[in-house]
Write a structure and sequence with these properties.
EC number: 3.2.1.22
Oligomer: single chain
CATH architecture of the largest domain: Distorted Sandwich
CATH superfamily of the largest domain: alpha-galactosidase from lactobacil brevis
Strand content: 25-35%
InterPro entries: Aldolase_TIM, Alpga-gal_N_sf, Alpha-glycosidase_related, GH, Glyco_hydro_36, Glyco_hydro_36_C, Glyco_hydro_36_N, Glyco_hydro_b
CATH topology of the largest domain: Beta-galactosidase, Chain A, domain 5
Protein name: Alpha-galactosidase
Shape: globular
Structural class: alpha+beta
Bound molecules: 2-acetamido-2-deoxy-beta-D-glucopyranose
Number of domains: 3
Catalytic activity: Hydrolysis of terminal, non-reducing alpha-D-galactose residues in alpha-D-galactosides, including galactose oligosaccharides, galactomannans and galactolipids
GO biological process, one term: carbohydrate catabolic process
Length: about 750
């Protein structure tokens, strides 16, 4: 084995070595966690995460996060302290604290009771736990003792009596390491947590790119790749929610990494609130990544004896490019995140009333739309906004939010008998009856509502500053237990009043005039309590998250809701980009995607019904958003076939591995392949966007197949996996917006 200290770099400037003691960390491979009291190893199928205790300082120093390494590894040899950067600023640190010579961004900043922000966390002890404990009040990945093991490292700052526990869980099958931190004040006076990153990692590579997902309302999840430069670069959300502006996801990749080749690290924060992602390339050339709370919205007072727990951050590693990184995250999230029984099956094709009826609702037009839904083979009818409000009827977006009682003019006998009429409808060519779902936006209130009349103090506000309305509404303060209880009761009452088996939970604005910075996280804890209580109480309900489209597309929501409306932009061409972008971090099973009417409400574009259907069925939550009666006959006639195809591919979309073959930003022929986990079936989606006159048809080369095996293509020709991957298939698609779905069966 190699001795890293061999050449003790002898320049006159070297004052002392950071680790005169240890030249090698010992470990053993095979077990998911190996800890010998001075060094720690987390071993996945093809990832190693290693760190050790610096026994002169008690600091935790990172050794490796990447492809598998052997049990014994050479430790890093460090220049002595010459210049201004202290010893702690020259090393790779697991939990960088502040104020003692590491001038990079810290993972924690504590304002001590005396006012200074210096901390010194030192190793105290550690525990290894089979499985993974739940995270107090927060969503978290889960697994049995066979799936996951946890290492907890206890750190202590003896100068201020503050404890920090770092929890590392490893899912060896998924090459995923999940970290969270909790901080406990053991002192006698209040302290303030000014910043806290869930994950902080220093990677030794100097030439890296970072990839993030940026956007805005109706143009979510655009992939952004840029070079990591010296200094700090980052993004985040200060909207109060994870937001469509930036997703709480980061990839770091080698500058040469592509979609299918090269090293990629993916980081995904399991949190729905404001967040911060920072990447800092320091003077020594290391790249530090920090993901966690947004420091501008924390300032968390921690009284003696109390604990603040950070959200958790998932990290995965792949040598198979950005696609490999995505598939690792997808598998982890498909199998270890969502609690709902609908996570992996039974997503009925739905028809939502919004784009068909809007606010213009009455029992007869809703019933007629539901009847048409059943006739074309939809299995779930969803009544969107506009059904509620008594004193302030919700007939437009100006009033009624907060008053979760059926509008008595629209439903004189309440919801129950009306819903019964709908759930008695037989789905065409099926033994099933139509299911009924409903829309709610419980975290919001219109000032024109009975709720606001009675509880104006329940809306977020800051002193006497005016309460800024967005879409005529204010945000309820879910940090207040009475607000949480009100929402739990209001939504429970609706669900108990009729046979409702689906809920679309919307949330249509960000937070302004927040009572205090800490209210942001207190709100999240309250919101998760509400989500947890309701989804546990109504396990047979299929819940779909929504926030002006993809304004809260994050793993925190996915713990409770198996699907999220991906974007209010339903233009099928733009949806290819949005859904492929979203798939960087999230599995297709999580995406709500609908075939909507043309010309498209957002873009005015007209795209053929088959293309619209094919794009929508690449999402686990397939549906329609239109009034079939308003459609041209031919389009309407195509709907039963498209719904049937969506049901056929659904198991592959929900459970399969996704291969992004051609990206829409790079190719006029975007293509996606879903392969079942057992490799027996696959569904290939191919699109042709802009007409290409007098031009050869490209070969779409498949990936991820078994090269030796044979596959029957659409029940016809049989080719080997090698042929399909190395030569590929041609699709003679003509004109603009042409598409095809092809099924493959392994022979
Ligand atoms: C530090 O590590 C060295 C080498 O492993 C060992 O000899 C020494 O006893 C350690 N010191 C302490 C204080 O544990
Ligand atoms: C802090 O985290 C550790 C590790 O998960 C856990 O054992 C401990 O109970 C946590 N403390 C609190 C107060 O939640
Ligand atoms: C400590 O914090 C608690 C909770 O925020 C607060 O009620 C209390 O007044 C604070 N104590 C001091 C001495 O500031
Ligand atoms: C229901 O609304 C439709 C417009 O969507 C209208 O034509 C119809 O007359 C209304 N029916 C009743 C009973 O109000
Ligand atoms: C039901 O079956 C008939 C006959 O095969 C077919 O024409 C019709 O399109 C089917 N409808 C649905 C909704 O599948």
């Amino acid at each position: 084995m190699v001795h890293a200290l061999g050449g003790i770099v002898a320049t006159g400037l070297v004052a002392l070595l950071a680790h005169p003691q240890a030249v090698m960390a010992k470990g053993s491979t095979g077990k998911p966690i190996v800890a010998d009291g001075t060094s720690f190893a987390l071993n996945g199928n093809s990832v190693s995460y290693r760190f050790h205790i610096d026994n002169t300082t008690g600091d935790l120093l990172g050794d490796h996060f990447g492809g598998s390494v052997g049990a014994d590894i050479p430790l890093e040899s460090v220049h002595g302290t010459a210049g201004w950067v202290g010893a702690s600023g020259r090393v790779r640190r697991e939990f960088p604290d502040q104020g003692r010579g590491d001038f990079r961004l810290p993972a924690i900043r504590i304002r001590q009771s005396e006012g200074y922000t210096v901390s010194e966390f030192q190793y105290k002890s550690h525990d290894i736990i089979a499985g993974k404990p739940a995270l107090a009040g927060l969503p978290a990945t889960m697994g049995s003792e066979d799936d996951v093991s946890t290492l907890v490292v206890h750190l202590y700052d003896k100068y201020s009596d503050v404890a920090a526990d770092l929890s590392y869980s490893i899912f060896p099958e998924h090459d995923a390491i999940v970290r969270s931190v909790n901080v406990t004040n053991n002192g006698k006076a209040n302290i303030t947590i000014e910043s806290l990153a869930s994950l902080s990692v220093d990677l030794p590579l100097g030439d890296m790119d970072m990839i993030s997902l940026r956007g805005d309302w109706a143009r979510e999840a655009h992939r952004e790749r840029r070079k990591v430069e010296y200094g700090i670069q980052g993004f985040g959300s200060a909207t109060g929610y994870s937001s469509a502006l930036h997703n709480p996801f980061l990839a770091l990749v080698d500058s040469t990494t592509t979609e299918s080749h090269g090293e990629a690290w993916g980081f995904s924060l399991v949190y729905t609130g404001s967040f911060s992602v920072d990447v800092e390339k320091g003077s020594q050339g290391f790249t530090r990544a920090l993901l966690g709370f947004n420091p501008s919205q924390l300032s968390w007072t921690l009284p003696p004896g109390e604990t603040l727990t950070s959200p958790e951050c998932v990290s995965v590693y792949s040598q198979d490019g950005i696609g490999g990184m995505s598939r690792a995250l997808h598998r982890l999230y498909r199998n270890h995140l969502t609690k709902s029984k609908f996570a992996k099956s039974d997503r009925p094709p739905l028809l939502n009333s919004w784009e068909g009826l809007g606010f213009n609702l009455n029992e007869s037009n809703i019933y007629n739309l539901a009847k048409e839904s059943a006739e074309i083979g939809a299995k779930l009818f969803v009544l969107d906004d506009g059904w509620f409000g008594k004193e302030y009827p919700r007939t437009s977006d100006t009033e009624g939010l907060g008053d979760w009682v059926p509008n008595p003019d629209r439903f004189p006998d309440g919801l129950e008998p009306f819903v019964k009429k709908i759930t008695d409808l037989k789905v065409a060519n099926s033994s099933e009856k139509l299911r009924f779902g409903i829309w709610v936006e419980p975290e919001m209130v219109n000032p024109k509502s009975t709720l606001y009349d009675e509880h104006p103090d329940w809306a977020l506000h800051a002193g006497s500053y005016p309460r800024t309305e967005v879409r005529n509404q204010l945000v309820l303060n879910l940090a207040l237990p009475e607000v949480q209880d009100y929402i739990i009761k209001a939504v429970s009452d609706i669900l108990e009043s009729a046979d409702i088996t689906y809920v679309k939970w919307d949330n249509n604005r960000g937070m302004h005039e927040v009572t205090s910075p800490a209210t942001h996280h207190a709100y999240m804890l309250g919101m998760y309590r509400v989500f947890d209580t309701l989804t546990s109480k109504f396990p047979d309900v299929l819940w779909e998250g929504c926030a002006s489209g993809g304004g809260r597309f994050d793993p925190g929501v996915l713990q409770y809701f198996p699907q999220i409306w991906t974007s209010d932009d339903t233009d099928a061409v733009q949806r290819i980009s949005i859904q492929m972008g979203t798939s960087l971090a999230y599995p297709a099973s999580a995406m709500g995607a609908h075939l909507s009417a043309v010309p498209n409400q957002q873009t005015g574009r007209t795209v053929p019904v088959s293309f619209r259907g094919h794009v929508a069925m690449m999402g686990g939550g397939f549906g329609l958003e239109l009034d079939p009666a308003e459609m041209p006959e031919d389009d309407k006639a195509a709907l039963p076939g498209l719904i049937a195809l969506a049901e056929k591919v659904s198991p592959l979309v929900l459970n399969g591995d996704m291969w992004r073959l051609n990206l829409p930003e790079e190719s006029n022929w975007p293509a996606v392949l879903f392969i079942s986990e057992d490799g027996q079936q696959a569904a290939l989606f191919v699109y042709h966007v802009v007409p290409n006159i007098n031009f050869a048809y490209p070969r779409i080369r498949l990936q991820g197949l078994d090269a030796q095996a044979s596959y029957k293509v659409d029940g016809d020709a049989v080719y080997t996996g090698a042929t399909l991957m190395n030569l590929g298939l041609q699709f003679p698609l003509e004109g603009e917006f042409a598409s095809q779905v092809v099924m493959l069966e392994k022979q």
